[in-house]
Amino acid sequence: MIAPNPDPNQEPDQALDWQGQPVQCGSCRHQSLLQEDGCKKGQRCVQDRLGQRIDRFFAKNPGLADHYLNHPYFEVRTLAARHASPFRLPPLLTDSEPEVRAMAALRLPLQRIEPLATDPERRVRVAVASRLHGRALLGMLSDEDYYVRLVVVRRLPPELLPLAISDIEPEVRQWVARRLPNERLCGMVKDKAPMVRVAVAERLPEAQLHLMADDPDIRVRFAVTERAPVEMLPQLLEDQEEAIRELAWARLAEARAARSDKS
Fold first, then answer.
1. What is the pLDDT, as a whole number, of residue 76?
2. Domain with 53 in it
3. What is the CATH number of the domain that holds 18?
4. Amino acid 261: pLDDT
5. 68 in a structural domain
6. pTM of the entire predicted model
7. Do the domain assignments include residue 254?
8. What is the 3-state secondary structure (H, E, C) of the chain?
C-alpha cells in the first residue's frame, strides 16, 4: 500500500503516518527515545510518512534499521536499507518495490547485484549501472532504456566507447563524444544530431576541424571557429552567418596583434 501524497507545507504537529493517520507518540514502541532526542514528532520519526523524517530517524538511530526491513510501507524499508547492516539486505533484492531493490543494489557487494542488471524497473537498473565495472557494465550498453545506457557511457573506459557511437539516442551519443578518445572522434563528425556534432567540434583535434567547417548547423560552425587554427580562419570569413564571420575576424585580429607584440 502506498501512502497518500504528503503536503510539503504540513506543520510538524500535523504529522501523519503512512496510512494517513495522525502520528501517535504515546503508542510508539520507541517512546523512550523522546527523552534522548532520538526522535521528534514532525522532524525525526519512523512513523511519519515523509521520507526525510524517516531518514533522519534512522540516521540518528542506525541500530534500529535492521528491524524495519520488513515494514509494510516501502519508504520505511527503503530508508532502513540505507542504514541497515549489509548482511541483512540480500532478501531485499526481490522486494516488490523498485525503490527498495535499488537501495539494496547500491549497498550490496557487486557480485550480489549483477542479476539486477535485467530488473524490469529502470530505476533499479540505473542503480546497478552506477556500480558495475568491466564486462558486467559493458553488458548493460544494450539496455532498452536510454538513461541506463547514458549511465553506462558515463562510466565505461573511454577505449570501449566506440561501441556506443551508433546509439539511437542523441543524448547518449553526446556523452560518447565528450569522453571518446580524441583519435576516434573523427568517426562522429557527420552524426545526424547537431548537439552531438557540437560536442565533437569542442574536442576534435585542431588539425581535423576543417572536416566540420561546412557543417549545416551554425552552432557546430561556431564551435569550430572558436577553436580553429589561425591558418583556417580566412576560410571561415566566407561563412554565410555574420556571427561566424565576426568571430573569425576577432580571432584573426587577436592573432595579428599577438604577432605585432612579439616583433
1. 97
2. 1-88
3. 1.25.10.10
4. 72
5. yes
6. 0.85
7. no
8. CCCCCCCCCCCHHHCEECCCCECCHHHCCCHHHHCCCCCECCCECCCECCHHHHHHHHHHCHHHHHHHCCCCCHHHHHHHHHHCCHHHCHHHHHCCCHHHHHHHHHHCCHHHHHHHHHCCCHHHHHHHHCCCCHHHHHHHHHCCCHHHHHHHHHHCCHHHHHHHCCCCCHHHHHHHHHHCCHHHHHHHCCCCCHHHHHHHHCCCCHHHHHHHCCCCCHHHHHHHHHHCCHHHHHHHCCCCCHHHHHHHHHHHHHHHHHHHHHC
